[in-house]
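Researcher: Go.
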Amino acid sequence: MNKASYLRPARPVCRIALESIRPNPRQPRRTFPEEMIAELADSIRQYGLLSPLTVRRLPHDEFELIAGERRLRALRLLNERFVDVIILNAPCADAALIALIENLQREQLNVFEEAEAYRQILDEFGIKQETLAQRLGKSPSAIANRLRLLKLPLHIRTRLAENALTERHARALLSLENPKAQESALNEAIARKMNVRELEDHIAKMKKPRENARLKMLIRDHRLYVNAVLHTVKDLKSAGISASAKVIEKEDTVDVIVTLPRIPAR
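Model: Structure:
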């Protein structure tokens, strides 16, 4: 079956029992605020359902929702018994893609819901990132960048979304490897209402003390460097070169003097 054949309705808009519709197990949207559903229910009560739901047929006269989760919830809130639908002859993988596309176009998924949907489709159906990008009309790098956001812990992703912080805020947090450091930076970003640049500057300051501490630790343990020089002198001696080294420890410095024979220029 080619792509065009399942995108065309198997038959015109028809009316089915609301109770025969099963939820979409691959629904990209994770949150449905009650006030949003209530507002939509009020709109449907006044003006009716302007867009039919999209479903695919299941065995035993049941249907699986492809697109229209918010409308379905609003209709149930109104205790409706029947609903207008369009039935698509779509296999599972294509139904998941259609649901994702419908949400991207109409429902304004947040970047984390979008990334989760990408990962679910890739994992469940074995689709390559390049193929998914092509089907969605996106670049492979855009898909990869979204998926990278899932490296952030779930609770951090949730707080980013709840506070309406952007994808670029999330990418800035990814530059911190420690989840506790990520959470600390996020707390500051929320409390001080940081834009992306301010958060990046804050993270840079967080990272600098650790880098300086690491450097100081290496310098403080000077014996590593002294021993390295002494081992080199020992290797020179083993090779028949008359070399020597003297270590002079002072209050503020450690001097290592290496003496080598002068090799006449040819």
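Model: Residues 91 and 168 are 35 Å apart (CA to CA).
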